[in-house]
Amino acid sequence: MECWEEAYIAGIIDGEGSISLSRMHTNEHRRSCISIASTDKELLQFIQPLSGGTITNKKNYDPAHHKDSYTLTIKKKEDVLSLLTHISPYLRVEKKRKRAQWILMEYEKVTPRNGKYNPKLLEQKLAFENGFLTYKKRPASADLVIHLMYGGDGGTCVSMLSSWH
Fold first, then answer.
1. Concatenated DSSP letters for 1-19?
2. Closest C-alpha among 103, 77, 84 to residue 17
3. CA-CA distances (angstroms) from residue 123 to 71, 100, 108, 130?
4. Which residue, 29, 35, 104, 145, has fewest beta-carbon neighbours within 10 Å?
């Protein structure tokens, strides 16, 4: 993904998207999920090959007054983590940026591949979910880690992740 695409998608998510934890089934733990809602299907079709996910149509109950609307939903763990890695330095809405960082730093630590949780890991997973859902501003003493990523055009993109302690 080119640097300009990363920044562009981050802007779309800042304005029209959400970074959340969702339950796909009633009796399971929440999974990371990114969704973007738009009345412009072409926009979502541009983003989808870069991000993965599926585009769904929302039923329009009042076509005389409302445009058709669509949602791009990214649920696959690898796709969510990859996209967040690329766009997090460009997110400007603090809550979305912090949620992206929280997922990038903690999600894999508390999510076993087989979905089986021992008591300690289950406690950590629930604490992760609670921390995510009860977002608070990052303390001033948080560490800052800077990663450099090189774009295919020879340009350099700077990626910053703040760790919450």
1. --HHHHHHHHHHHHHHEEE
2. 84
3. 33, 21, 14, 11
4. 145
Sequence-distant (6+) residues with CB within 8 A of 115 are: 28
Amino acid at 53: G
Answer for the pair 124, 110: CB distance below 8 angstroms, yes or no: yes
Instruction: Retrieve residue 11's tokens.
Output: 């802007």
- 110: Cβ contacts below 8 Å, ≥ 6 apart: 121, 124, 125, 127, 128
The encoded tokens of residue 94 equal 């603090």
pTM: 0.76
d(CA 80, CA 55): 15
Two tokens, residue 111: 């999510």
Question: Could you tell me what percentage of the chain is helix, strand and coil, using 3-state DSSP and rounding each to the nearest 5?
Answer: 40, 25, 35
Q: To which residue do tokens 């302690």 refer?
A: 165
Task: List per-residue pLDDT tens for the chain, 165 residues long.
Answer: 899 999 999 999 999 999 998 887 777 788 899 999 999 999 999 999 999 999 999 877 888 888 889 999 999 999 999 999 999 999 999 989 999 998 998 888 888 877 788 888 888 888 888 888 876 555 443 444 434 444 444 444 544 444 443
